[in-house]
UniProtKB/TrEMBL annotation:
Annotated EC: 3.2.1.40
Residues covered by the Alpha-L-rhamnosidase six-hairpin glycosidase domain: 307-659
Coiled coil: none
Keyword terms of this UniProt record: Hydrolase
Entry GO MF terms: alpha-L-rhamnosidase activity
Stated name of the protein: alpha-L-rhamnosidase
Domain Alpha-L-rhamnosidase C-terminal: 661-728
GO biological process: carbohydrate metabolic process
Species for this entry: Coriobacterium glomerans (strain ATCC 49209 / DSM 20642 / JCM 10262 / PW2)
Alpha-L-rhamnosidase concanavalin-like domain residues: 210-292
């Protein structure tokens, strides 16, 4: 088996640990003219393979980040056209997530003491014989690495060929040996790849004292490519940042301990060079050491390669910019795993961020393979938690158990994402694969809720709701914690019913009923209003807990009153649902008011302040232009102000599902409902969603003498026209005209 063969070929360079070290290994191919050649390769760490100087494949940061104690992926490449008798196979091996500096604590050697690599090069000759070379062969030799340093957070220090005579110290060469490690049991072929994408030139170049500031016009996760023929000195330094300060300097305080710096020593190379084992989150770069020449530096966005499936535009330019902001935040944070941010010393797989954005993500891109790999990360991480709890980060970088009960709601990714995949794509494989994990997680939640059916441990609550102190949120977090407890029970019970596990279903349904009753008794007055009725708690109660009836109506009225009085006050968890909840219940105008108002907090506020991605905080830049930081404490908010965080971009689903009105009647869009919520402030809107059933297109226009709605469907379904009429339709194109007057009470 290939898995065992890779294990047998695992090698490392055994030397004292040095953070950021990169090894270079070389193997010369024998004199065989191949008719077919395949390179299969993996690493505990990061690798990049090349043959005769040409990179093998398009994957970046390979083999990808997984929970190494139990899980690893490998890649196979067809290298037939690259290979010739006497070719040189070179492999660079870096520490990456495996043992480089990583995680909130900035620790090294999180998963192991040193990186290891394994490869199999199968060469088929004209006579049908197969000659296999492996990394464990005696023909593999270590060479001098061109790197002084490579790390995910700090960047790279690289010496180009021909610059070595100026190098202060040449790294010692130690020959490889069999690794003392073993590859994880779950060793599988990767289904996704992180790749480089389009090339972006700077939109402005400004001399600023002794440095040059380049503005690429777009915040992104990317690397800078360098054209060495345009570098006029022996060494250049490139620093990265998302914004500039008030004096025009590169702002880097929000990077915390990440240096985000590239040092490039020029040699005799003429080929374009780029970092291999890092990436940065930035819009601006600071160049020092050389004058800038046009074409010298270009940005290359980096993200998991996925097919784009959604498009949206309207007559409101601010809304169009918001749409692109959430697209760019998805690209920037879908880098192997769904990260929180791409710039600071974090970039981890936060489960809560992932599930609130999952529906939006599934409209934007085909995320099936990406999300299935992330669900595997969740399952593998869960294996090291005897209680079965799913924590806030996968792959985990530390303890995974109920020590993280203060982050109740994050682990609901384990139940929410599989259901999203089933409903959006009609594929139940994720439900089937994840079901034991879902069951273990909900059983752990129930155990901590106890006989009373309430989760009472302090919690982070509706994270980063505006105007809410973290301590206050923790003291008032119980409605949020228990809403997710009930949501997890409901979804796992539904999965049990669907999969035919009736005993589990009955038990979970009974538990959900008990927890609902406890919720009503603890958090609702007799007339149905919430006693601790802050906006996020109201939204989650209405979506996850309270069943339709007088209590639901009373709580919804309470929500409307709160929105009218206070405006937008939702955090990470509740923002996803707020606008749709209003629009679906006679308050579409109010939903649009929130969407389009340009005061802080608000989406248009961020757009007005020049955002090109979604911010972590509603007020990451305050109305006076200052950055939301507090310099009085080591644990101050300056440690948490990202300008590229997709959680509040969950509003993207509202654009598809409510403004365009595209939703499935049956899983996988086997039947489709089109129910657009229109507003004159947009004038018109149009978009499409490439579902697994076919392309769905919707456009509406309120700017003509007659309002029009045009729909194109690949399957049958129903169309609810804004005038209130309902039409059963078949596959094909459909045109409707209507008279439009806002129906809700705030017209």
């Amino acid at each position: 088996m290939i898995e065992q063969d890779l294990n047998d070929a695992l090698i490392w360079i055994e030397r004292p640990y040095e953070e950021g070290a990169v090894e270079l290994l070389e193997q010369i191919v024998p004199d065989v003219e191949p008719t077919r050649a395949t390179l299969t390769i993996t690493a505990l760490g990061l690798y990049e393979a090349s043959i005769d100087g040409a990179k093998v494949g398009e994957a970046m940061l390979a083999p990808g980040y997984t929970y190494y104690p139990h899980d690893l992926r490998y890649q196979s490449y067809d290298v037939t056209s690259m290979l010739h008798p006497g070719s040189h196979l070179c492999v660079l091996l870096a520490q990456g997530w495996y043992c480089g500096r990583f995680g909130c604590d900035n620790k090294t050697q999180l998963y192991g003491s040193a990186p290891s690599v394994a490869w199999l090069l199968d060469i088929e000759g004209e006579d049908g014989s197969v000659h296999r070379l492996t990394s464990a062969d005696d023909s593999v030799r270590a060479k001098v690495s061109p790197y002084d340093y490579a790390g995910l957070y700090d960047g790279e220090i690289y010496w180009a060929e021909g610059a070595s005579e100026k190098r202060p110290q040449t790294p010692e060469v130690v020959q490889p040996s069999r690794s003392a490690c073993h590859l994880p049991d779950n060793l599988v072929a990767s289904r996704t790849e992180v790749r480089l994408h389009e090339t972006i030139d700077p939109i402005s170049v400004t001399e600023h004292g002794q440095v040059t500031i380049l503005d690429f016009g777009q915040n992104m996760a990317a690397v800078i490519e360098i054209d060495p023929t345009l570098v006029s000195s022996d060494c250049i330094t490139i620093r990265h940042g998302e914004i500039l300060d008030e004096d025009g300097n590169l702002y880097t305080r929000n990077l915390r301990r990440a240096k985000a710096t590239i040092v490039y020593h020029k040699g005799s190379e003429h080929e374009i060079w780029r970092p291999r084992f890092t990436y940065m989150g930035f819009r601006f770069v600071e160049l020092s050491g050389s004058a800038y020449r046009p074409g010298m530096l270009r940005a290359r966005p980096i993200h998991t390669s996925m097919d784009q499936t959604g498009r949206f535009s309207s007559g409101h330019e601010g809304l169009n910019r918001l749409y692109m902001n959430q697209i760019w935040s998805q690209r920037s944070n879908y880098v192997g795993i769904p990260t929180d941010c791409p710039q600071r010393d974090e970039r981890q797989g936060y489960t809560g961020d992932a599930h609130v954005f999952a529906l939006t993500a599934s409209y934007n891109y085909d995320v099936r393979a990406f999300m299935n790999e992330f669900l595997c990360d969740i399952r593998m991480t869960q294996l090291d938690n005897s209680e079965g709890y799913v924590g806030p980060i996968a792959p985990a970088t530390g303890p995974t158990g109920v020590g993280f009960i203060t982050m109740q709601g994050w682990g609901s990714a384990d139940t929410i994402i599989p259901w999203m995949l089933y409903e959006q794509y009609g594929d139940d494989s994720a439900l089937r694969m994840q079901y034991p994990s879902m069951l273990a997680h909900t059983d752990c939640e129930l155990a901590h809720a106890g006989e009373g059916g309430l989760w009472l441990a302090p919690n982070l609550g509706d994270w980063l709701a505006p105007g809410v102190d973290v301590a206050w949120a923790a003291q008032h977090s119980a409605p949020v914690s228990n809403a997710f407890l009930i949501r997890d029970l409901d979804l796992t019970a539904r999965a049990a019913r669907y999969l035919g596990n009736s005993a589990d279903a009955k038990r979970l349904e009974a538990a959900a009923a008990r927890c609902r009753a406890a919720y009503r008794d603890s958090f609702l007055t007799p007339d149905g209003r919430m006693t601790d009725g802050y906006q996020g708690a109201l939204v989650l109660a209405l979506n996850y807990v309270i069943e339709q009836g007088p209590a639901w109506e009373a709580t919804f009225s309470q929500l409307v009153e709160d929105v009218e009085t206070h405006g937008l006050r939702t955090g990470f968890f509740s923002t996803e649902h707020l606008l749709g909840l209003l629009a679906d219940n006679g308050e579409a105008r109010l939903a649009y008011d929130l969407l389009l108002q340009d005061g802080c907090p608000g989406w248009m506020y961020q757009v007005r302040k020049g955002a090109t991605t979604i911010w972590e905080r509603w007020d990451a830049i305050r109305p006076d232009g200052s950055v939301n930081e507090d310099q009085t404490s080591e644990q101050s908010s300056e440690n948490m102000v990202s300008f590229n965080h997709y959680a509040f971009g969950s509003v993207g689903a509202f654009l598809y599902r409510h403004i365009l009105g595209i939703a499935p009647i049956e899983p996988g869009y086997r039947r489709v409902r089109i129910e657009p919520r229109v507003d004159r402030r947009l004038g018109h809107a149009q978009g499409e969603f490439r579902s697994v059933a076919g392309d769905i297109r919707v456009s509406w226009d309120l700017e003509r003498s007659e309002a029009t709605l045009d729909v194109e469907l690949p399957v049958s379904g129903e169309v609810l026209v804004p005038d209130g009429s309902r039409h059963a339709v078949g596959a094909g194109s459909h045109h409707f005209t209507f008279e439009f007057e806002p129906a809700d009470r705030l017209q």
